[in-house]
Specification:
Blueprint lengths: L6 H10 L2 H8 L23 H12 L3 E5 L6 H20 L4 E6 L5 E7 L1 H21 L6 H27 L4 H31 L1 H11 L4 E4 L8 E4 L4 H4 L1 E3 L13 H4 E3 L1 H4 L2 E4 L2 H7 L2 H10 L1 E2 L14 E2 L3 E2 L3 E6 L1 H9 L4 H8 L1 E5 L3 E3 L2 H46 L13 E2 L1 H13 L5 E3 L3 H17 L3 E2 L1 H10 L3 H23 L5 E9 L6 E14 L5 E2 L6 H20 L7 E7 L12 H13 L7 E3 L2 E3 L2 E3 L4 H7 L9 E5 L14 E7 L2 E9 L3 E9 L2 H9 L3 H27 L1
Parallel strand pairs: 1-12, 1-13, 3-10, 5-8, 8-12, 15-17, 18-22, 20-21, 22-25, 25-28
Antiparallel strand pairs: 2-3, 2-4, 6-7, 9-11, 14-16, 18-19, 19-21, 23-24, 26-27, 27-28
Helix pairs in contact: 3-4, 5-8, 6-7, 16-18, 17-19, 18-19, 21-22, 22-24
Length: 754
């Protein structure tokens, strides 16, 4: 029997098993993270991005622009902050604005002029003008109603005298009392009118409204400071939704537009990022495209100046504008994902990208890096940085409690949070990571990538590090150990991870039910993966597949459900490979209808990683040979060769749960390095079935619950592991089945002919 494996192949698998020792050697300098030194250079705190760090230093030297392109969590925002820090420390004294931006009235009510002057000079000038206006206001004659009050008082006194005389006359001539009543009522009315004048006079004198109204035309001429570098110290402004309003500035709406109360244009003006900050950081470039600000940004980047205009089509501010230009010599730092980059390449023939490259650089962020000794050391550095960040958070949250109540108060308050009694020696302080815990983080980064590389998407790992820290703190452990990392991984899931876990839980019972109800002919356990859009993490899950081949029919392959174009092409490829196999063994072809069903794959299937599983299911049904339901399989089938696929580490890890009752998996030979991270902190040994090499991993201590992983080069290797049949047996049984089908079809045609 021909053996496709060579002696070197078996050596490679055995060398693969040395990976944990190699990792241990690379971490030998480290007992725990207390020995890790954090670099003083802030740019060096961003790990894995060597090219980006070098580019930032070059661009900072000539004050150029930056475009950071990469997946979320790869350190784009952190690099932008570091760039800001480096520029500020090196050239900040020269780049930082030193002049105030002042606005004052223009040629008409809809125009204003802009001036750049020394902050002290304009402040002194405005104070001097304000004092002069105040003096003028105070010299305005005080509001008075003395004349009105005197005339009212005179009438009131006359009426009082008439009232008194009419009373005397009434004693002798009673009809005179009528005059007494009328004059008395008039005197009372005039008394009320006199008091009204006095109150109005007092109100006007206290509010100074009259004086202010008299000098309004002067106060409207006082300049307005739109930007003062002594108060606005932002060297970099972060803009999340770039628009004309927050990038350029504009004019506020004036609700008092009549009765001589309108606010002059220069007192309604405000400035945006272009005029105030040397560095503008656009956090997500896709929002700039969505807001339609791209054309304005390109113009400003080219001219380094702009006219401030009203942003409204109607109403207050529509016709407002500055008569002269505002300066806008900004450094633009922008971030985007690869989908946005493809849009920028088409938009305006790549005008924005051309502006960036003219005075800067477009940096492609690494999504994964090789697992070298240097990169392993950077992982330890990153963990230490996160430990220090958590220590600062504890200090901010618990510092005052510790200061006032000591460790006893912290322990008692923590008991309320944790919900249980804590030991007397409990201390709320960060724990260092042990060497094995660092290896567990490296394992996780390896699982989230492929080809022996470490994932650069570190933001999701931050949460795992912090959760593991809290696990160790709650346990009052001296160090963070691998078990704390594993517990954190179970708890700290993205939404896709939580959904995947629910699906796996559901498929445990589904798989057990299918296994108990079928003879396993035509049934195969494929392995699928879903990817988190937020974290980039992949989550594997078993994918039960059922396949049938029926003689006759229209010679087609049917795969119902929501499957993508690649999955459809993979199914057609499987059909072609089976037809070729029939031709190669000289079997007569009777015409077959092939049916493939992804069992309860409600969200659809895409990709070609299930093609080898489909092939095994169809061959199993064709030769009536059961498939082991204890093994999962993944791989892309091309002819007889099984080619590598993505997410193998997560696919295999997803079926290693003991409750799932799986005993192993078959993976493509070229994915062999994806098994390396599964060996970290585990017991394992070399195995071989017939000529197919593999590794047995023990899932529990004491070499219990073995899980076998086989590395398959061809579909015949997978047939051997999953169905226990050799290439010769498969070909012989295919030939026999084909002859029977041909005889059957001839018999059926003969009956119809009769």
């Amino acid at each position: 029997m021909y053996n496709i494996y060579k002696d070197e192949d078996y050596k490679w698998i055995k060398e693969l098993m040395l990976y944990p020792q190699t990792l241990e050697k690379n971490l030998s300098y480290l007992k725990d993270t207390s020995q890790v030194a954090i670099p003083e250079d802030p740019i060096e705190k961003v790990i894995f991005q060597d090219k980006a760090r070098k580019a930032i230093r070059k661009v900072a030297q000539n004050k150029g622009h930056l475009l950071l392109v990469g997946k979320p969590g790869t350190g784009k925002s952190m690099l932008a902050d570091m760039f800001n820090h480096v520029i500020d420390k090196s050239l900040g004294d020269y780049i930082r604005p030193k002049e105030s931006i002042v606005a004052y009235p223009g040629k008409d009510p809809n125009h204003m002029r802009i001036a750049y002057v020394s902050p002290e000079k304009i402040e002194n000038h405005i104070n001097m003008v304000s004092q002069a206006v105040e003096t003028a206001k105070n010299h305005i004659e005080e509001f008075s109603l003395d004349k009105q009050i005197a005339s009212v008082r005179k009438v009131k006194n006359i009426l009082l005298w008439v009232t008194a005389l009419s009373i005397i006359a009434g004693v002798f001539f009673p009809p005179a009392f009528v005059i007494t009543g009328l004059s008395g009522i008039g005197a009372i009315f005039m008394f009320i009118q006199e008091n009204n004048h006095k109150v109005q006079e007092k109100i006007q004198q206290e509010t100074f409204s009259a004086r202010a109204a008299n000098v309004k035309h002067i106060t409207d001429m006082v300049p307005e400071i739109l930007y003062d570098p002594r108060r606005d110290m932002n060297f970099m402004i972060r803009v999340s939704e770039p628009s004309s309003k927050n990038m350029k500035g504009g004019f506020r709406h004036d609700p008092y537009q009549s009765g001589n109360l309108q606010t002059p244009i220069h007192k309604r003006a405000y400035l945006g990022a272009h005029a105030k900050a040397p560095i503008i950081y656009i956090d997500e470039l896709k929002t700039l495209i969505k807001e339609g600000y791209m054309s304005s940004l390109l113009e400003i980047m080219q001219n380094k100046k702009y006219i401030l205009e009203g942003g409204r089509n109607t109403g207050s501010g529509a016709a407002d504008r500055s008569e002269n230009y505002l300066k806008a010599d900004n450094i633009i730092i922008a971030c985007c994902n690869h989908d946005t980059l493809s849009y920028l390449q088409d938009e305006g023939d790549g005008a924005f990208l051309s502006r960036i490259e003219d005075k800067g650089e477009i940096i492609n962020m690494e999504s994964s890096v090789p697992e070298t000794k240097e990169n392993i050391a950077q992982v330890a550095q990153y963990i230490k940085q996160e430990i220090n960040n958590l220590a600062k958070e504890f200090e901010n949250t618990w510092g005052k409690v510790m200061e006032k109540e000591g460790t006893y108060g912290v322990r008692k308050r923590s008991e309320q949070i944790i919900g249980r009694k804590l030991p007397l020696d409990y201390q709320l302080k960060v724990r260092e990571f042990s060497r094995n815990a660092v290896a567990e983080i490296i394992k996780e980064l390896r699982c989230r990538s492929a080809d022996g590389k470490l994932s650069c998407m570190l933001r999701p790992v931050n949460g795992i590090i912090k959760t593991a820290e809290l696990e160790a703190i709650f346990e009052n452990s001296m160090l963070v150990e691998p078990r704390h990392i594993r517990n954190a991984l179970r708890e700290h899931l993205s939404i896709e991870g939580a959904i995947s876990r629910e699906i796996v839980e559901h498929k445990k019972d589904l798989k057990k039910y299918i296994t108990s109800m079928t003879d396993s002919i035509g049934y195969v356990v494929g392995l699928a993966v879903i990817r988190s859009k937020s974290s980039g993490q992949m989550f594997g899950q078993p994918l039960p597949i059922h396949c049938q081949i029926n003689a006759g029919g229209s010679d087609v392959i049917t795969a119902p459900g929501k499957i993508g174009e690649i999955a459809k092409a993979a199914a057609e490829n499987v059909r072609a490979s089976i037809k070729k196999l029939l031709h190669n063994v000289g079997a007569p072809y009777a015409g077959y209808e092939m049916h493939i069903e992804y069992i309860q794959a409600h969200d659809g299937i895409e990709g070609d990683s299930a093609s080898v599983a489909m092939n095994i299911g169809l061959i199993s049904d064709y030769i009536q040979q059961p498939v082991s339901q204890k093994y999962g399989i993944t791989g892309s089938l091309t002819g007889e060769i099984i080619l590598p696929v993505g997410g193998v580490t997560e696919k295999v890890r997803s079926i290693m749960d003991i409750d799932l009752t799986m005993e192993g998996a078959c993976i493509p030979w070229q994915n062999k390095h994806d098994i390396e991270p599964l060996l970290i902190n585990m017991e394992f040994e070399y195995i071989q079935k017939e000529d197919v090499p593999g590794i047995r991993i023990y899932r529990t201590e004491g070499k219990q619950d073995p899980f076998d992983i086989y590395f398959c080069k061809t579909k015949y290797n997978a047939y051997r592991i999953l169905m226990g049949v050799s290439k010769e047996e498969v070909e012989e049984r295919i030939s026999e089945r084909s002859k029977k089908d041909l005889d059957f079809m001839r018999h059926v045609k003969g009956k119809h002919a009769c």
